[in-house]
Amino acid sequence: MKRCILDLTKTELAETISPPFRATQIYQWIYQKHAESFEAMRNIPKKLRAQLDEAYDLSPLQTVNVEESGDGSKKYLFRCRDGVTIESVLLPMKKARYDDSGKLLQETKYTVCVSSQVGCKIGCAFCLTAKGGFTRNLTAGEIVAQVLEIKKDNRIAHNRRLNIVYMGMGEPLDNIENVAKAVKIFNDPDGLSISARRQTISTSGLSSQIKKLGEMNLGVLLAISLHAVDDTLREKLMPINKAYNIESIIDAVKNFPIDQRKRVMFEYLVMKGLNDDIKSAKKLVKLLHGIKAKVNLIYFNPYPGSPFQRPEKEDMLAFQEYLIKHGVLCTIRQSKGLDISAACGQLREKTKNDHS
Ligand code: SAH
Ligand code: SF4
To answer: What's the distance, Cα to Cα, between the start and end of the chain in Å?
Structure first.
């Protein structure tokens, strides 16, 4: 199989071609002008175009399925070159606004949720991705391609601001080298130009890897999937807690380098009768003391055979109110794309069943 050109940082690309300065133009063709072939890269000498075509594939992903939800979010199912499938979601966070004369006041703000692995090793009890087990890590190019393909498909201009969250399938910190490389490729000003401050890495709490990520000093934002405030419950929900308990995670977060204006996000998946009580909210406030945090409450999204239930709205609101009253910033994640089953792993499972 040919190498994929999206796996290369601009520096790496420059090292493999002559003259090296052409790497800038090639990057612009790929990421900004959305070239469909090396042949289309008109200002690149014919000989170099042929060499590139000989050595590289331009995209590692094929679109298999797109599902659009009533709220505008779109879920993509992609096939990699070896046949495995992964998913990504495009989320319009704020709709475009126009004045009475039809003049654009504010453009739609997009977030793309990307996968970092095929499947996942962590095995959380509430997560559909976990059920399929682990297949392999994604390459940096396969991570980058998810955003590139979605931008192309939606004709999103290359210079439009966009946020990335590593919250699709997989545990990003279990594939830290490729994820870090993707962060850098996204960042390139001749490429997609998505700064690290617009990229959020979500982790189930691999404390030693959080430390390693911090030492890499990429400038990315961090989200912790906490979901429980005591170790006994967290171990049941997330077996990884036996290796890295809550205290070790809080320690790692306290030492993580983060932009003074930004916050560490704590995701809290709320399950009925399990972690939705005020006692838990109280513990959460204590736990986050001294951290510039923001809590994001998530409604558990049930799937056929899931052992947990969606919480009541009143309990969610009471939980949120308690946190806010005690000085902790807290939002409730609107279940975007619920009707297209956008919680992690769900589209892939569905398509599998449809085809079998
Ligand atoms: N592995 C990383 C990143 C991806 S997990 C992590 O765990 O942080 C993707 C997100 O989907 C997590 O926030 C997880 O809590 C959420 N999720 C998993 N199963 C869910 C379900 N059934 N309903 C709602 N959210 C779910
Ligand atoms: Fe893996 Fe995250 Fe799912 Fe847990 S919630 S199994 S870490 S993808």
So the answer is: 28
173 residue type, one letter: L
Place of tokens 């947990």: 308
DSSP 39: T
The answer to whether the CB of 297 is under 6 A from ligand 1 is no
CB within 8 Å of 103: residues ≥ 6 apart: none
* Residue 345 DSSP class: T
Q: Is 221 in the pocket of ligand 1 (CB under 6 A)?
A: no
Q: Considering the entire predicted model, what is its pTM?
A: 0.94
Distance from residue 168's CA to the centre of ligand 1 (Å): 8
Ligand 2 centre and the CA of 302: distance in Å?
15
How many other C-beta atoms can be found within 10 angstroms of the C-beta atom of residue 299?
20
Return per-residue pLDDT of the chain as tens, 356 residues.
899 999 999 999 999 999 999 999 999 999 999 999 999 999 999 999 999 999 999 999 999 999 988 878 899 999 999 999 999 999 887 777 788 888 877 777 899 999 999 999 999 999 988 888 999 999 999 999 999 999 999 999 988 889 999 999 999 999 999 999 999 999 999 999 999 999 999 999 999 999 999 999 999 999 999 999 999 999 999 999 999 999 999 999 999 998 878 899 999 999 999 999 999 999 999 999 999 999 999 999 888 888 899 999 999 999 999 999 999 999 998 765 555 555 555 555 555 544 43
Q: Which helix (H) or strand (E) holds 309?
A: none
Tell me the C-alpha to C-alpha distance, in Å, between residue 246 and each of 201, 240, 242, 322: 18, 10, 10, 21
CA angle 199-67-141, nearest 5°?
40
Distance 151 CA to ligand 1 centre (A): 24
- Is 87 considered catalytic here? yes
| Residue tagged 């052409």 (tokens) | 22
Is position 124 annotated as part of the catalytic site?
no
Provide the CB-side half-sphere exposure for 269 (13 A, CA): 22
